[in-house]
Design a protein that fits this description.
Number of helices: 21
Number of domains: 5
Strand order of the largest sheet: 6-8-9-10-7-11
Distance between the termini: 48 Å
CATH class of the largest domain: Mainly Alpha
Radius of gyration: 39 Å
Shape: elongated
Strand content: 5-15%
Structural class: alpha/beta
Largest sheet: 6 strands, mixed
Bound molecules: adenosine-5'-diphosphate, zinc ion
Amino acid sequence: MEKRTRFSIGYFVLVFIVLMMIQSYLAQVYGVRVLPYSEFLLSVEQGQVAEVNITSYKIKGKFKKNDTAGSARLAPDFETVRVEDPDLIRKLKESGVRFTGVIESTFVRDLLSWLVPIFFFGLFWYFMVKRMGGQQGFLSLGKNKAKIYMEDDPRIRFEDVAGVDEAKLELMEVVEFLENPGKFTRIGGKLPRGVLLVGPPGTGKTMLAKAVAGESHVPFFSMSGSEFVELFVGMGAARVRDLFEQAKAKQPCIIFIDELDALGKARGGISMGGHDEREQTLNQLLVEMDGFDPTAAIILIGATNRPEILDPALLRPGRFDRQILVDRPDKAGREAILRVHMKNVQVSDDVDVSGVAAMTPGFAGADLANLVNEAALLAVRQGKEEVTQAEFQEAVERVVAGLEKKNRLINRHEREIVAYHETGHALVGLSVSGADPVRKITIIPRGISALGYTMNVPTEDRFLMTKSELLARVAMALAGQAAEEIVFGEISTGAHSDLSKATDIARGMVKEYGMDDGMGRVYLESERRPLFLSVPGLSQERKYSEQTAREIDEAVRRIIDEQYDRAKHILRERRAVLDAGARLLLEKEKIEGQELAALMEENGFKPLNMGGASKHTAKAEE
Ligand code: ADP
Ligand code: ZN
């Protein structure tokens, strides 16, 4: 399509150029010389003019045939603009020029001067529209049906979406309603109208919405919030109207709006361009939601990962008043999701699905789907018949930290710094009680930013953490830097994200968990997690004084400093292990937590946090 259009535009330009050339050729052959009025008068006085036609604006005429006034005069015809000149007639008479007056009909010319531009404009428009939309009709700009995605009977069922049981439970009610809207309205119960699925990307929100439609066998309309916001003001609103019109004709049905935040951002914020348009679109959406016939069997499902920026108006009763959290799955959930996706590939019996689930805390459904796919690809590459545990192991590592780039060169000194840095993390992780078990230490560069990482694994998905555990995490996060300082006397930029992680934890301890003795047991608002689910629109202003803010900063700094000193102390004491570990790491590029633990034991230290049978893997620590 695209190619053909470009081709015809090229054609068009070619024809245009040819026309221009013909035109200029003709003008040369039959050309009319345009004279300034003064020259025309001169010619008349010198008797070179044979005859003239005087029209209302122009004087056209012919030179005499035997004119010798110069070779420049190619054509005997000439033309000049008529100037108000009462003496002209006398002069013409004196020179014996034949003259006539002509009343020109300008009708055809005027008509052409209108029609030709309109024609070209139309042609241009046609091509533009064709290029933009393809399927779009010539005049149906706002009615862009193409982008509204409709499935009459989606085949996704609840069983395909795993690990989100609570969300499914809540959505069951919607399914019941859609299956039998009459039952609900007869009793007069309050109908669900809008459901907002809130959760990080890739957790299956779209799937859930489709599954609701699939379970209740109703059509599924979907559109993405970002698609509503159009270049031209008013088009987004027209689209919303159109979407609802189509949905009303097909009820009972589901309208799914992905990325609701793209159009439902709180109004009145600073924004460039597109602002009015978004506001109009949002208003139209609100109008449509309010204007529903109360018995209409249309359910709106919105999805967003940034509920805190949504306009509070969207969350009022009767609109998206029911919010369902679709969080990242826990271990059991991950196992279930893995099993769903493993159905589509040949998996060997030796694969320990729950083990793989244990290795992947923090993965969302989409990551797990990607993981299974990656493992399958690895198996294919190695010519295997089925996917084995080894491929899953490798795939986890790949997905966790990007593909291994063994051949990326870092210079020797950098490698040394990274090795000490990572060994520092791991050694402190094995030395303070309450830290997560260390599984693997590597200096193989992965991805772009992380030069190396230490995998430490929470033993189970954690919901509660004690103060000493949090402090252990802070110490471990700072240990890379501490090791660099001890060994090289200075720190590198590689510790950047360590520091932000440590600060985050410390800040949380002070402000949210009341774990700082100096600050006492107070809750001092959280900046990171606004209370979107309970009180929409609550402003996030600070609820404490400047003085308190300073005290918080001091308390955070105190925690960081203390843990940094703690890490340094541990590493100084275990310098021999640090050196041996870093040497081993430089040599092998990748070592197991156990190997470092063995080095500790050789040197007379008892490793902690060996974390039972857990073979988990987790967050990369740079
Ligand atoms: P979201 O809309 O939350 O960003 P999607 O529903 O688009 O996420 O999920 C993307 C893909 O990830 C799905 O097509 C599916 O393959 C996989 N996926 C995500 N969550 C799940 C889940 N809970 N169960 C099974 N597969 C999932
Ligand atoms: Zn680090």
